Amino acid sequence: MARRAKVAARRKPAKPSPPKVAKGELATLLDFVRYAVSRFSEARLTFAHGTTDPVAEAAFLVCEALHLHPDQFEAFASARVTAWEAGRILDLIGQRVTTGKPAAYLVNKIYMRGLPFYVDERVIVPRSFIGELLEKHFGGEDDDSVDLLDPPAVQRVLDLCTGSGCLAILAARHFPLAKIDAVDISRDALDVAARNVNDHGLADRIALHRGDLFGPLGGKRYDLIISNPPYVDAEGMASLPRECRAEPKLAFDGGADGLDVVRRILQDAPAHLTPQGGLLCEIGRGRERLEDACPHLPLLWLDTEDSEGEVLWVAAADLA
Prior knowledge:
- This protein is an alpha/beta fold and 320 residues long.
- It folds into two domains: 10-107, Ubiquitin-associated (UBA) domain (Helicase, Ruva Protein, domain 3); 127-319, Vaccinia Virus protein VP39 (Rossmann fold, 3-Layer(aba) Sandwich), CATH 3.40.50.150.
- The chain contains 14 helices and nine strands.
- Helix 2 packs across helix 3 and helix 2 (29-43) runs parallel beside helix 5 (83-99).
- The longest helix has 17 residues, at 83-99.
- It is elongated, with a radius of gyration of 22 Å.
């Protein structure tokens, strides 16, 4: 009896079962979003993979289950779903709660600037601010923005640490005359990038290279270098939420202060930029540390709708 009691004491408490949903209790898309938000909030999930709150994530999963673009949610919010569709939606909600995986991995899709991209566990879920900045500061129509380069003048673009290839693809669409090289050290990531490049019909304009930063490029020079490199510091790596721990560690780890890769990019970029070119690099929350390390480098910090001081621009002339 005592032995059985000890064994029982070591057992982990059973996880509570998800609430039963009776047929007809949830009818419309909006009903399922409300239900998902309740489950997500109860499970204390983290939202950092293309959506920033439980409502947006719930709407994303509901739309994916129904093969709808996220922009179509409002038009169909009050539409009823079939029993089969309801089962699919509830299954995705359940997977999100029980596995803790990013929603993008559950449906193998993420949207950036309205475009769909394939993703799986071989790549980090893309959520860079650079896509917005390409539209805003490179021939954009925003009167308050600073035009950094004229799109027709951009003939060659380099995307370092390309991951799923999404930024290279956005660059190809924004700079219609440019050829793009995209580099990653991960063979798995490049396999995903190749799929996305082919899906978007850009295999003739985007070349993928495996290697460490500028290593596989020889002496090539570019009008624009973009990069969303690993930039999480040691403290941040130790406290990554469950969702982020499902992603490749290589895509996050930026060393003790988060700037190991960023420093190498700044150091080697001058040898790969044309005289009128420049570097656009996302570094997360490392602005103060970088400015302390490079006090004489004239960095221009570019803000987006959801970020402040997390992406830098520096001209080739200033780097040199």
